Fold these 2 entries.
Entry 1:
Amino acid sequence: MIQPLAAAALLVLASAAALRAQQPDPETAGFLLMRGVDTVSVERFSRTGGVLEGRILARKRVPITYRAVVDAGATIDRLELQVLQPGAPEEAPPRQRLVALFRGDSIFTQAFSGDSSKAERLGTRSGALPYHPQLPMLSLLEQVVRRARVLGGERVQVPVFLMSSGAQTVLATVEFRGADSARVEIGSIDARLAVDREGRILGGVAQGEQVIERVAVLPGRVFATQPADYSAPAGAPYTAEEVRIETAAGHTLVGTLTIPKNATGRVPAVVTITGSSRQDRDHNTPYGGPYRIFRQVADTLGRRGIAVLRMDDRGVGQSTGDFESATTADRADDIRAGLAYLRGRQDIDGRRLGLVGLSEGGAIAPMIAATDPALDGIVLLAAPASTGRQILEYQGRYNIEQKEAIRPEQRDSVYRSELAKVEARLHEEPWLRFFLSYDPLQTARRVRQVPVLILHGTTDRNVPPADAQRLAEAFRRAGNRDVTVRMFEDMNHIFLRDPDGNPSKYESLPSFEVAPEVLGTIADWTAAHLKR
C-alpha cells in the first residue's frame, strides 16, 4: 500500500502547487482558546487557494503542525500532521508524522516515526472531514462550518472522522441561527460560534467555558519553544552532568547524571527506566503535559545522597538508534549499558546500584535483576503482572465502556474487532509481538535475591491494580524475602491524583506533579537499601 499512497500524495501535491499559483496571496489569521484568564491554546494558520496550513501550541501538549488540501466543496483531500520534538526549533524534523488521503468511503494513512512507517486503510463516510477531539484544531472546526455553508440549510449534518483512539465517523450537527451565528455539536463537543456567510469562525464559546477568539496576528513569541532543561535547580545539593553512553548494539544513549555534592567517597546510584512509547529522560511524552516524574525522582534522591542516571530512549531526544524496531528485551539491554557505565565511574559505588522503572520500565527492571543479582534493589511503579494480551483486554474493555454510543450488548463484538486490528499488526511490529506474549510472572520467579518495592495507584486504567499483589506473590514464592507493596488511593497509572483515572482525561488534571508521598516512599526505601 505504501507505493500507491506515495504516488497519490505526489499527485495531490502537484494539484496544491497549481492552486497556490492561482491565488498567491494567503489569508492569515490565528485563534486563541481561553479558559478564564488562562490561555489553553494558540493557533496560527493560513489559507492559500486550496491549501490550509498552520501550527498549534496547546497547554500541556507538544507543538503540532498541519497541512490540508481542501477541494471546491470544502472537503479535505489530504491531511498531514506533524508532532514536533518539545523544545526543538521550528525547522527541526518532526518526531512523528501522519499523512491521510481521503478517497470516498476510505482513508489511506501512512504514519512515520523514526525510520519506521506504517500504512493502513480505514473506513469512513464519503465526504467526511477530519477532526481530533483532544486537539484544539479550531481551523478544522471552522472547516466543518464552511462545509455546512456549502451544503446549505439551517440545520446541516456533516460526517466527521474522529482521529483519536477507536477512530470513528460521527455526524456533526451545524445549526445556523441567522447569518452570523451557529451551534456545532461533534460528539461530546458543543460550540456556540459567531460566523460569517462563508463559514469563518469569528469567535465563540466551546464546552460552555472556553472562549474562542479570532485574531488577525499572533505575536511570533507565543510559538517560541525552549530546550528541555535538565540542569540542577538553583541551590540543589547535587550537580547535573550530561553523559553519553555507547551501547553494544551500536547506538548512543544521552542522559543526565545527577551526583550529590560534597560526598565522602563513592555514592550509590539508580538508573530510571521509562515506560512504553517514546520518552525523554524525564519520562515526558507527547500529549502528556508537563509531566517530569524522573526529574522529580532525581531531585528527591539527590537530596538524600543518591545519584540518578536518566536517559533519553533510543531514537528519542539526543539518543541515537531506532526506537520502533526495539523490543522490551532490547530496551533492557540499553539499561544494562547504563549500569555498566555507572560501574565504570570513580565517583559511583558500583556495589550499590538500583533501578526505578515505570509501567513497561517496571517490567524491564525484573528482567535485569534476574540476570544481575548484585543489584541492591528495584522499584516498580505500576508494573504489570499480566501478559500483554491481558493488559490489552483490560484497557480495551475499559475504553469501550466509556463510550456511550456503544451499547452493552455490542461491547464484546467491538472488543473482538479492535483486538483483530492489533493482531493484524504483529508481523510488522517487533515490540508488539514481544509485548503480547511476554509473561512478567515467569521473570519475577527468577528474582530471588534483589529486594523489590512495588507501588501502584488504585485508579490505574492501564495496568490492573491487582497486578501489584500478583507480582509480589511471584517474587515471594521464588524465595525473595524482601518484597514490599504500597497502594496509593485515587492515583492513576502515572501516579497523579486522579479519582477517575481515565487516560483520555489526563490533560485536564489540575497538577502534573507526582505526589510527595509517592516520592517519599521511593526515597525512604531506596536510601534504606542502597546506603546501608
Entry 2:
Amino acid sequence: EMGDDDTTVAGYLRRGREAHRRRAWADAYRELSAADREHGLSLDDLELMGTAAHLLGLVDESHALLTRGHREAVRVGDVPRAARHAFWLGLDLMQLGNVAQGGGWLARARRLLDGQPECVEHGYLLLPEGLRSLGERDFPGAEKTFTRMAEIAERFDDRDLATLARLGMGDALIGQSQTRRGVALLDEAMVSVTSGEVSSIVVGIVYCGVIETCHRIFDLRRAQEWTDALTRWVRSQPDLVPYRGQCLVYRAQILALHGAWEEAGAEAARAHELLLRPPPEPAGEAVYQQAELHRLRGEFANAERGYRDASRQGRSPEPGLALLRLAQGKVAVGLAAIGRALDEMTVGPERPRLLEAHVELALAVGEVDDAQASADALAAIADASSAPLLEAIASRASGAVHLARGNAPAALASLRAAIARWRALDAPYEVARVRQQIAEACQLLGDEDTASMEREAASEAFRTLGAAADLARVTRSAEAVGGEPAAVLTRREIEILRLVAAGKTNRAIAAELVISEKTVARHLSNIFTKLDLSSRSAATAYAYEHRLVAGSA
C-alpha cells in the first residue's frame, strides 16, 4: 500500500527504484516519470528511467533520457559516464539503421575518452569494431578485438562487458571453425546471464546473440535449451518489449521441428505481430515460418502468400518457395530458384537447407549427378560441424541419391542412420519422410511386407501431424503400386520408366533413345503425374513392383 509520501517526490523515487529492482518496468517508468515532472531526476535515476524506457520499447523516450544523462554527466565532469551514455545511444541508433546518427554518437564517445586514463568505457567502445569485423567475416580481427575487451573487463571487474566480450569471442572462434571452443565461450556467457550477474539490457542482447548462433551452426540442443530459458525470462517480465518477437520466432522453429505445428503457428503469428510494433523489427523470418507450416499442411495458396510477404520483409523465400513449386508440380521453376540461391549464397547458415532442397528438386527431374554433388557438399558440412541436425539432413540426402541410382542396400544404410538421428532430435515429420523413403528401398528389394508397414507408419504420422500433402502423396503412391502401368502409360513412357529404374540419368536416356533431354524430362513429368509419384526412387520402386525391369521377380 502507498504511504503518506505517495504523492511526494521521495515517494515516487522510492517506488520507482523498487519497481526497477523487481523488473516491473512499466511501474518503474511511471513512478520515475512522476518524480521527474515534479523535481527532475539525478543522473542515477535518469539511468534507471532510461533502462525502463528501453525495455518497454519506448525508443524515442529512451534516446531522450540517454541524451539527458550524457549532458548531465558532462555538466558534472564525469567524462567516462558521459562517454558510456553516448556509446549506448550510438549503438542503439546503429542497430535501428540510423547509421549517421549512431556513428556520430560513437565518435563523440571516442573523442571524450581521448587522452583519458584507460577505463571500462574504452572496452565498450571496442564492441562496434568487433561487430564490424564479424560482419566483414574478419574473424581473426574480431577475436583480437573481443579478447582486448575481455582484458579490460577483467581489469575493471565489469560483468556486462565481460559477458559481451565472451559472446563476441565465441562467434569469432566459430567463424574460424573452432566450434568447440567458441560454443564453450557462449555457454560461459549464458551462465553469467542465467545467474543474474548482468544487467537486463545485456541479458536480452546475449540471449538473442547466443540463440541466433546456435541456430546458425545447427546446434539444436543448445538452441532449444537457451530458447526455453529466454522464454522464461521474458514471461517473468510481462512489460518487456524488446526480444519478445525474435524469441517467439526461435521457439516457433523448434516447436515445428518437434511436430507441434499448431503451437508453432501461433508463436510465429505472435512474433510477427510483436516485431511490427514500434519500433518495427525485421519480421520476415516470422512470416517465413508461418508459410512453411502452410506448405507442410498442403495449404499452398496461403504458403505462397506467406513466402511473398517474407520476401517483401527482407527474408529470402528459399528454400520454402522452391519446395512449394515442387509440390505444385512446377519442378523446373523451383530448381531454377534453388540454383540461383545457391550461386548467391556460397557460405552461410542457410546453405545446408538450400543444398537439401536442391537434392530433392534435382532428383525430381532426373539430374542425379547434380543431386549427388549437393549431397556430397552437405556431407562435408555435416562432417565439419558434427551437428546432429546436419548429420540427419546429410544422411537423408545421401539415401535419396542412392535410391535414385537404384542402389537399395546403400540407400537403406544411409536412411537407417538418418531415421535414428531424426528420432534422437524428436522430429516426427522428418522421421515420417524417411520412413516413406525406406518403404521405396524395401520395395526395390522385393520386401513388400516391410515396404507396406513403413508406408503405413509414414501415413499415420502424416495424418497425426496434419501434413495433408505428404499424406495424399503416400496414399496415392501406395494405390499406384497395385495398378497396371500399361493402362495409363504410353509405350514410350514405359520405355523411359524402365531406363530410369536401370539407374540411367536423363542425359543417358536421351542418348540411348536419340531424343532431347528436354523431351525425356517432359515424359518423366508425365509419368510422375499419371502414377502420382514424387521422385525417381518411387518410380524405380514402381517399375520393379510391376516387373518392368529385366530380372525383377
